[in-house]
Amino acid sequence: MVDKIRHDQEAGKQIYDASVSGLRIVVGKNSASYKLVGRINDGTDRYISLLIGRTDEVSLKSARERAHELRTILRRGEDPRAPKATIPNLKQVADAYFATRGQELSARTLAWYKAKVDGSLSTLKKIPVDRIDRAKVRALHEKLTRKTGPCGANGAMRVLKLLINDAARTHDLPPNPVTRGVRMNQERPRDWAIGPDDMPLLWQQLDDLEDRVRRGCWLVMLLTGLRRGDAQTMKWEHMDQDGVLSVPSPKGGEAKAFKMPLPRLLIQELAEVRDLTRPLESPFVFPSTGAKSGHVENMSRTKAFPYAPHMMRHTYRTHAMEAGVDFQTVTLLLNHANPHVSFNYVTRAHLLGHMREAQEEVCARLAGFR
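Above: the chain sequence. Below: its structure as tokens.
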């Protein structure tokens, strides 16, 4: 019947299908084609014509099946004629994220993200993100758990989840495979705080350090809870005459910049460091003539001082609680994020006096073990 229509009907004739609404055969001068005319359910009441194929190439059964598929697409409010956006691979997504969001991140965080993409996630870099499925992600997580440990594997998955979510802002993607396919490893918090019994030895080893500049940096981390990078890069211009320290680019980037009052004991210790380093005329509080950065680096365990930098932050946090400082105040002093809505109404600048009192309480407890 279709072949007869193609040969017997004049050009321009349209023969409608009684089985599928909107499907028709349109006869041309030399051939005939199946077309579907339908309305897009997008609120515009537009009718569009969609070519399915020539009658000598597509069977009537196939034309009807394709017409049903197209009608479903139209009901969803989509235009089948619109070109499909090319889905980027993971490397392209990562490059776009770093280019647009990199300035909001600290240099250390940005470097960590890039290391995960180039290292743990390197096998996924060339795969379009809509084709990264649960099976691939789950297998990779299990492999990384064996290779890098529970925390390393979880960290890689968090970066992957973040990048896919960012791509989903501009591309139609299936549900995030990390959320659906990965059961994160249980992570135990590090028991790094130095307890009361060991604090006298810590002070003794601090006072025995020959490098008084590095000793000052250790003291800053212990008596304020500052992270290593923030302590190493301190500049004199960051401290005002009232002993308030500005931290311009902490973890999280410039958007997380904060101010912190320093305890009196630390201000006195830093005055000695300044007298010692004055001939160097360095803008850094803890200068180093041997480092390209101009400030001390590689603050790590040694035989003379067998403690990790982040142990100082854990110790500060623990002894702050022992000193009776409330949780919200310690959160402010450590510049930790607080998910509570009411915390968004807090203005740090108005709490410097309260924060100073808390700093003195924590410092008094820590110094009491000396």
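The mean pLDDT is 92.
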